[in-house]
Amino acid sequence: MSRRLPMLDPFEEIKRLYFSTTRETIERDMARALDLLRQMPSDEERERAAGYMHGLADLQREWRRAAKRRTRARAPHAGAVPGDAGAAGPRRRTPKKPDAG
Description:
Helix content is 56%, strand content 0%. It has helices at residues 10-20, 26-39, 43-74. It is rod-shaped, with a radius of gyration of 26 Å. The longest helix is centred in the middle third of the chain and has 32 residues, at 43-74. It has 101 residues and is mainly alpha-helical. It has a domain at 10-16 and 24-72. The termini are far apart.
């Protein structure tokens, strides 16, 4: 089990989370910051931490979008055949069959 340091001031802890979060820790840090925000006894204290909470939310949103773009860039196009030009290549028209008439 991990040992925790004595509880810091919730505002100071949220501020620390904001400045130390990374792509790998943003989900955990955001959850912790929300828990700390709920523990704050007054609206004034919550308003004081709002800027850092908005900053954490912006980082989370930005890093999620970047992760989706990276995933999409690596994924093959739907219906693509390996070695085929796929959706990026020019479309070929199939020749029309002459009318039998």
